[in-house]
Design a protein that fits this description.
There is one protein chain. The protein is an alpha+beta fold. Among the domains are: 58-154, Beta-Lactamase; 231-300, Orthogonal Bundle (Helix Hairpins), CATH 1.10.287; 309-450, Histidine kinase-like ATPase, C-terminal domain (Heat Shock Protein 90, 2-Layer Sandwich), CATH 3.30.565. Helix content is 49%, strand content 19%. The protein contains 8 helices and 14 strands. The strands form 4 sheets. It has a 5-stranded antiparallel beta sheet. Helix 3 (223-270) runs antiparallel to helix 4 (274-300). The radius of gyration is 50 Å and the shape is rod-shaped. The chain starts with 5 loop residues before the first helix and ends with a strand. Mean pLDDT is 84; it is low at 405-415.
């Protein structure tokens, strides 16, 4: 999976979107929890503030009295983070919880409505930041009205620690949720791209010849592509069929002139014009071989269904050898055959015969005493090796073999098309044709063709 892969891009987009969504969700949940804890702390402070307000009083000697013990033990623990403070605004009188020790909460100079609760964030003892709730109440004394300011505070660190603890507890769940969502995204991508994989497999079957069209029902988003591909395949088949028909018509149209040339050659030979007759025979043979080659090329490249391709290598080799043994050259040669049964190649039988015929005919032409044919079955290919004990070919000229019209010795009769036709046939069936020196002394030609399924 590369960076250009659609699957890669979709997964990257899923990772980014899921990560962003979970980060936003996590921050939102932490903020919501912080607000909840803040309201909870405010409610708790309001409760303490109400308890103090209900029990504070002014004595007969006009002093502030508060003897009620609040339930939370932190009020009695120095610098515990929970404090209360009662301040007389008319006289320098101050009462405070033991937890404040010798510190004072510096309340802001704001105007308080009687009974209303104000909230502040103020500095406290030991560098603490305090969440403060305060209220002002009035008492009627002998010398007039007394204003009492009551404040309750808690260390803000309590809120921060609760928020951090909640975030730490939530993190594993977010990781699990991210894993589940990414797995779901991966499954969604696989399901969403499955039709494209099906199209790819269908195209592979078409290339192998197992099918001619994309026949499955695909999703609506993919069907326009499938219809276009099927239309392209149909147009290609029509073009190939017209080309095949044109080639066949051309070949049949040349048969009559070739027959006339052959008849004229025979007549000239009877009249004693041997040299001219030989030239006409060679010309007719060249034309015939070229026509045969074009017919083969038209057939093997015409989109034949590969599922029909099945040829028994042993039958093809034995049939060609039997034919060559009837020729003057083939009759005097020793034929060494090592062809096992069951070596079935993915090629039409007539094309395998044409392929072997050209290679063995070339070996027969150049061999001195023997020609060897061996067939090896591989996991995916059939290897056919033809060797002769002739003069061989220099290694620097091996690469030129199989090229159209190449002849390395003009003394031998021929057109130079035999090995070129063999190469055309092998390549048309996804095979290979290679040349190397033979241990017998001559040329070794190796053909590899896919095995039949």
């Amino acid at each position: 999976m590369t960076q250009r892969s659609l699957r890669f891009r979709l997964l990257v987009a899923a990772v980014i979107s899921v990560s962003a969504a979970l980060v936003i969700a996590g921050i939102s949940l932490v903020l919501m929890f912080e607000r909840h804890v803040e309201r909870r702390i405010g409610s708790e402070l309001d409760t303490y503030l109400n308890q103090i307000t209900a029990t504070v009083s002014v004595t007969t000697n006009e002093r502030i009295a508060f003897t009620h013990n609040l339930a939370d033990p932190r009020f009695n623990q120095p610098l515990s983070g929970l404090y209360w403070q009662i301040q007389d605004e008319d006289r320098p009188t101050l009462l405070r919880s033991r937890s404040l020790w010798d510190n004072v909460i510096e309340l802001p100079d704001d105007k308080l409505t009687p009974g209303a609760v104000h909230g502040h964030l103020l500095p406290g003892p030991a560098g603490q930041a305090l969440i403060v709730r305060e209220r002002q109440i009035f008492f009627q004394a002998n010398n007039g009205e007394r204003r009492i300011r009551i404040a309750v505070a808690v260390n803000e660190q309590t809120l921060v620690e609760a928020r951090n603890a909640f975030a730490a507890d939530m993190l594993p769940y977010l990781v699990v949720m991210a894993s589940v969502l990414l797995l779901a995204a991966w499954i969604q991508v696989r399901i969403g791209l499955a039709p494209l994989d099906a199209v790819r497999r269908g195209v592979t079957e078409i290339r192998s010849g197992a099918k001619r069209r994309l026949e499955r029902l695909y999703p609506d988003e993919v069907m326009p592509l499938v219809d276009e591909m099927n239309g392209l395949l149909e147009a290609q088949e029509q073009t190939i069929e017209r080309a095949r028909a044109w080639t066949a018509d051309l070949a049949h149209g040349l048969k009559t002139p070739l027959m006339v040339l052959t008849a004229d050659s025979q007549r000239l030979r009877e009249e004693g014009h041997t040299s001219i007759a030989d030239n006409l025979d060679q010309l007719a043979e060249t034309m015939r071989r070229r026509v045969d080659r074009e017919l083969i090329r038209a057939r093997v490249r015409s989109g034949i269904e590969r599922k029909r391709m099945h040829a028994d290598t042993a039958d093809a080799v034995n049939g060609v050898v039997r034919t060559l043994k009837r020729s003057p050259r083939g009759a005097i040669l020793r034929w060494l055959l090592d062809v096992p049964n069951g070596a079935d190649a993915a090629i039409l039988p007539e094309d395998l015969t044409e392929l072997l015929g050209n290679i063995l005919e070339n070996a027969t032409k150049w061999a001195n005493k023997a020609v060897s044919v061996s067939v090896t079955k591989g996991n995916k290919t059939i290897s056919i090796r033809v060797e002769d004990d002739g003069p061989g070919v220099p290694e620097d000229l091996l690469n030129t073999l199989g090229q159209r019209g190449v002849r390395l010795d003009e003394q031998k009769q021929g057109t130079g098309l035999g090995l070129a036709i063999a190469r055309d046939v092998s390549e048309a069936y996804d095979g290979t044709l290679s040349f190397d020196p033979s241990p017998m002394g001559g040329l070794a030609v190796t053909v590899q063709i896919p095995r039949s399924r």
